[in-house]
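Q: Is it fine to ask for two folds in a single conversation?
A: Yes, each is treated on its own. Send the first.
Q: Here.
A: Result:
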Amino acid sequence: MAAANNVTRMLDARKISYTAFEIPAVKLSAIEVSDHLHMPPENVYKTIVLRREKSGKLILAVVPAAREVDPKKLAVFLKEKKISVTTQHDAEKITGLLSGGISPLALIHKGFQVVIDESAVEREKILISGGQRGLQIQLVALDLIELTNAKTAHISKL
């Protein structure tokens, strides 16, 4: 049985079906998570924190493990002039979560805009961080989109 935290308690309370996986509680890349859990990297997603050039909501971009967020595509989609990826240090400071544990599920009521790469809706289930290092959550992508009030778009590149 994987550890319980605010994310798993929220999913349980909302009766959302998920599977929790415990992995080493160290910073692992999404590719390392896919290797560790023997899951295809296209089913493992990572969360990237971005900021707009002008003031406004910070953005959480959720993209497949083997891809990178494309700030230009994201800016066009959000009708912004420029969007930039934060540093790992800034992402941790902004979210209050450690890198490797940043999850849109843990930040639902924190004022972030969530954009999930459109590829997620093609997958039966995807794996994302559970809001802390060492905890991964597998759930239906449409449940994640609904819970986080996310938009979907082609926002990644190789």
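Q: Second one now.
A: Result:
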Amino acid sequence: MSKFICDRMLRRLATWLRIFGYDTLYAGDLNIEGDEDSFLINEFRDRILLTRDKELYKRSEGIRPVFLIRSDRLGEQLREMKVLGLRFELKMDRCSVCNTPLRRPSDEEALEIMKRENIREDLRKRFELWYCERCKKLYWMGGHWKNMQRFLKEYGLGEDN
């Protein structure tokens, strides 16, 4: 499975790659000291650098795996990435915020978050829940899940494409 690091121009793409289960770092989440472009060129070379910056792309070629994203629209960015052989399947593998692998929450963890976030407790009976230990966030396949599936279908990127 491919692993990625996205430059600051690709926050939404990083989030969606995480939703698809891809291990994806985002430059804006990293504590980068000094020149960010040099960091992106030289660090995390086991990952494909995704960038919209043509100059960064040119500087990275031959040094590390790099892929230039041309569009500024998410659906089109995902279409561009099809050449990398990615599968655009919605998963509950990674936190879309911080990239930490998700797990099932304990009853105590779920109830604590539900209380804090004013989420109705019957959600536990209606949906399977996933939990991010780092963000202390719950995930489930609610209405937003259907909206994401609709978005993928609109761009011809669903699980059957």
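Q: Anything structural to flag on that second result?
A: Two points. The helical segments are 11-19, 36-42, 54-60, 74-81, 107-116, 123-126, 143-154. Strands lie at 3-6, 23-26, 48-51, 66-68, 130-132, 137-139.
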